[in-house]
């Protein structure tokens, strides 16, 4: 695997006194508050007596080394989220890469200067080979922005890196020219920098209202590939939010090191996030901050963009291996669904046996020493995991592996029925949470066209690179043992893997689903 540009080593500094974390509302307390079940991937965390005493409520305030260690463990397990407060932690520079978008640039800079939080911050506009550089320079001048120019287009990664090198502040905000930040966006993100291990944080990308956007606009406004959803989240491969789009993000300048990989014209944002996480930095998603984005409305342009996104998976596979697997599912889940799809009674009985065995193994793993195995909990997780696996498999059939599904459907009636059922089920399940915003037929048409375009790009990129890793499924990785904390505090928690998100890896937000892995 290719290492890519270097990022900095995170400091060993702990969370500062006064910092607070709040348990995720979906975390379940069990065994009288001695265990926590939640996170992404799903895990069971046993609290040692001292940690249980510290975490009497859902909110933990850092007051000493022990509380700092416990707060950090909860954050890193995805069980809690920071509660940043007070003034932004560090000064900010806004970096805007642009090429041939003078009207959009003017709109963005006007919004930056109209926001009291960013009215006086340094702004660096990097003109990446615009055909009319004078127009870019004039617009930047009207909004008190410095201009750097590339004589020829070198790509968005190189443009952002040029702005990164020119910045002298602690924090750097990257904003694409087709964005319009909403008031207060920067402060909500900059407060996260109070965590010394926080490298990157991004807002929610919403749709910029458009007039006459055509039939694509309602679909994009509902489920844009740039929108990571309404929930706070840590960001890491294999989790509910596995990457952040570079359309809008705030970074700790020193953490980025050499910055984006300039050899990548697509997926460079995913690559940067994964390199930072691998180095030990924290990356977070903060949806209370919002930046509007002008989504592509023309059908052809929209589909070409989805195709382009798909080609990036092969580049990520060369750098990050199995982290880019398009399908992550536990073997027992895959076996259970394969047996169901035989359509035979014997297959259904065998599926039930597989699920029963998975339940027994998972219950054994979750059992406390000397206590009865929690069969009910394990059964619930297995059922939940099986449902998530089914949804993930259906998504793979219609998006990542549709050429294989199409070939199978051409020669097999049973395959045709299975592919049709997967396409309908995937569209209905994805549409249902948004049923008040868009009709089912428009949504289904948009989803199927988007999936065809992305899948075509995925296969094109893999074949072009002669590297099929971006097409190969993977199983959930086992969670490494939870390390003990420093000697003065002793071990506060014990973590056990109780599952993994069933997911597909591509530039769209991952569904927050889980497959329990015995």
TrEMBL record:
Compositional bias annotation for Polar residues: 484-496
All copies of domain Glycosyltransferase 2-like, residue ranges: 93-254
Keyword vocabulary terms for this entry: Glycosyltransferase, Transferase
Gene3D superfamilies for the chain: Spore Coat Polysaccharide Biosynthesis Protein SpsA, Chain A
Region (Disordered): 473-518
One Gene Ontology molecular-function label: glycosyltransferase activity
InterPro entries: Glyco_trans_2-like (IPR001173), MftF (IPR023981), Nucleotide-diphossugar_trans (IPR029044)
Cited Pfam families: Glycos_transf_2 (PF00535)
Superkingdom in the source lineage: Bacteria
Composition skew (Basic and acidic residues), residue ranges: 497-518
Pathway membership: Cell wall biogenesis; cell wall polysaccharide biosynthesis
Protein family according to the UniProt entry: Belongs to the glycosyltransferase 2 family.
UniProt protein name: Mycofactocin system glycosyltransferase
